[in-house]
């Protein structure tokens, strides 16, 4: 069996598909990936073949890019029609996630080739209620219906409308844990559990030495997305007031420490699964992957949501009692200090430890079984 995995988005869109690819490979399934060129090194590290490198997404994640122009949308759709048939040929299924204008092009190519198509999302808010679907369809049709149907016509496919429904399918997959992201009753989706790759990479020597040099520090990071202005300085000052050290993940926002004192360490990409098991609190944006890894590690969380589905995960963390949901995307010295005080409470640590044992680790196994059963 051969499966093509396609995505265009930040790390939260790419990592789940890498996890699925690794699981499929373990079961003897040949996989190939279409992903932004930003992740070529990550894919090489995991041994997942990058069959097609798409445009980088780093500039957009740093806030340097604006809403896509119609000409850019048309060009991206045209690129999928031009390049995907060569890498999709011979595949039995294609799993898509991320950028929706790309996903509808992917489904069109799959339709032409007679390949099964699956669309996966990482959290319930990315799947609108029935009452909202008409609005989503209208928006999708208006934004990229013209260029998509022009390309479909060129390869002998009929025009389609209701493009959100078309790209999403009538039964999308929800690649998230039922505890952190329970499927709402209105959603007709297949919930597989989260797609997470077990990570056995050792921590860099400098990180391991810093951890060993004192009490567990507070982790701060905002992943491959925007970060609040001045958040590193605010958190460092709040932690110092409590005698806590800090590990700051630079991330795509390129966060920097306010000074060079030895109670703080700035880091790049590391094994979060190992690191989160050794910190006192994780302050982050509420991305799907980060929230799942922190929950499985049993570390209290402070979620400062910025965009998209991050408010959902902030609310779930608070509702489960495993951390604090910051109100709004822009923290202050007072709000960070209050959140830190709450997250460091022993009852929150105890609750985080208890919930950690309920977070499923078999999401990719379930997804692989579903793919192979239909293949």
Could you explain how this protein is built, in words?
The chain has 375 residues and is of the alpha/beta class. It has two domains: 2-194 and 361-374, Rossmann fold (3-Layer(aba) Sandwich); 205-356, Glycogen Phosphorylase B (Rossmann fold). Helix content is 45%, strand content 15%. It has a seven-stranded parallel β-sheet with strand order 3-2-1-4-5-6-7, sandwiched between helices. The chain has a six-stranded parallel β-sheet with strand order 10-9-8-11-12-13, with helices on both faces. Strand 11 (281-284), helix 11 (288-297) and strand 12 form a beta-alpha-beta unit. The longest helix is centred in the middle third of the chain and has 25 residues, at 130-154. The radius of gyration is 21 Å and the shape is globular.
């Amino acid at each position: 069996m051969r499966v093509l995995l396609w995505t265009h988005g930040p790390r939260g869109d790419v990592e789940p598909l890498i996890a699925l690819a690794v699981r499929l490979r373990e079961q003897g399934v040949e996989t190939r990936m279409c992903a932004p060129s930003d992740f070529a090194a990550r894919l090489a590290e995991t041994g997942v073949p990058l069959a097609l490198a798409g445009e980088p997404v780093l500039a957009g994640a740093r806030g340097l890019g604006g809403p896509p122009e119609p000409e850019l949308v048309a060009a991206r759709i045209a690129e999928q029609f031009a390049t995907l048939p060569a890498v999709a040929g011979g595949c039995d299924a294609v799993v898509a996630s991320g950028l929706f204008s790309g996903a509808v092009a992917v489904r069109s190519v799959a339709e032409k080739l007679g390949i099964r198509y699956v669309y996966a999302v990482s959290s319930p808010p990315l799947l609108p209620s029935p009452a909202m679907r008409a609005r989503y369809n209208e928006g999708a049709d208006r934004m990229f219906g013209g260029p998509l149907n022009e390309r479909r016509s060129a390869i002998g496919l009929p025009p389609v409308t209701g493009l959100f429904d078309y790209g999403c399918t009538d039964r999308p997959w929800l690649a998230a844990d039922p505890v952190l992201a329970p499927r709402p009753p209105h959603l007709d989706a297949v919930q597989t559990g989260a797609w997470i790759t077990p990570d056995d990479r050792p921590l860099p020597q400098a990180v391991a030495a810093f951890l060993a040099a004192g009490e567990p520090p507070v982790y701060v990071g905002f992943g491959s997305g925007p970060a609040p202005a001045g958040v590193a300085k605010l958190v460092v000052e709040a932690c110092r007031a409590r005698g806590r050290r800090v590990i700051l993940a630079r991330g795509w926002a390129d966060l920097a420490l306010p000074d060079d004192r030895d109670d703080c360490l700035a880091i790049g990409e590391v094994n979060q699964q190992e690191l989160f098991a050794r910190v006192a609190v994780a302050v982050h944006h509420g991305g799907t992957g980060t929230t799942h890894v922190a929950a499985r590690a049993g570390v209290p969380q402070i979620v400062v949501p910025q965009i998209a589905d991050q408010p959902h995960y902030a609310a779930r963390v608070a509702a489960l009692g495993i951390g604090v949901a910051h109100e709004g995307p822009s923290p202050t010295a007072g709000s960070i200090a209050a959140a830190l005080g709450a997250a460091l409470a022993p009852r929150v640590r105890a609750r985080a430890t208890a919930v950690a044992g309920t977070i499923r680790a078999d999401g990719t196994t379930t997804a692989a079984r579903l793919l192979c059963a239909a293949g």
